[in-house]
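ARCHIVE CARD
CATEGORY: sequence design from structure
SOURCE FIELD: tokenized fold
FIELD CONTENT:
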């Protein structure tokens, strides 16, 4: 690793650690670039819940600051109750409809929330995907779900279309 890359990684590590110390978690946003293949989507995930024995949280399909705030609120809910969200749990964050939590499985760890493993030096952490309903309360796997909400991939292989 070059000295420049090592210095950037050290700075990122310090920034993440400071956010975790201040808020309990950091939100890592991955924006699209011109180098991403067609069909790629932005995403964001938390880093910091692992140290509390809780799953990290992931949203695919947006890089909105508002949704980063939702992840912060959800992370705090988990930490305050001392228990991770369950697969297929519905959680109210104050909107008209709740968000839906699903287990993100291996894809959540290996394809999306990779910095968690790098930051903590492990690959034994859980990730829960947060699904956002459309303006009518429909999930991405429900008929009639509006764009862009229907474009959220559902990483879980269990419980699809139960809601």
């Amino acid at each position: 690793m070059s000295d420049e890359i090592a210095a950037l990684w050290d700075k990122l590590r310090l920034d993440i650690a400071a956010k975790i110390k201040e808020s309990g978690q950091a939100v890592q946003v991955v924006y699209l670039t011109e180098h991403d293949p067609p069909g790629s989507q932005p995403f964001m995930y938390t880093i910091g819940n692992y140290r509390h024995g809780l799953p990290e949280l992931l949203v695919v399909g947006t890089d909105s600051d508002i949704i980063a705030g939702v992840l912060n609120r959800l992370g705090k809910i988990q930490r305050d109750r001392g228990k991770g969200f369950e697969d297929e749990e519905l959680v109210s964050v104050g909107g008209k409809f709740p968000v839906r939590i699903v287990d993100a499985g291996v894809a959540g760890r290996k394809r999306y929330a990779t910095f968690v493993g790098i930051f903590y030096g492990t690959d034994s952490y859980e990730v829960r995907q947060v699904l956002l309903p459309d303006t009518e309360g429909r999930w991405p796997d429900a008929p009639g779900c509006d764009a862009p909400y229907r474009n959220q991939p559902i990483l879980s292989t269990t419980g699809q279309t139960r809601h």
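CARD ANNOTATION: The chain has one domain: 3-151. The chain has a mean pLDDT of 93.
SHELF: design records, drawer C
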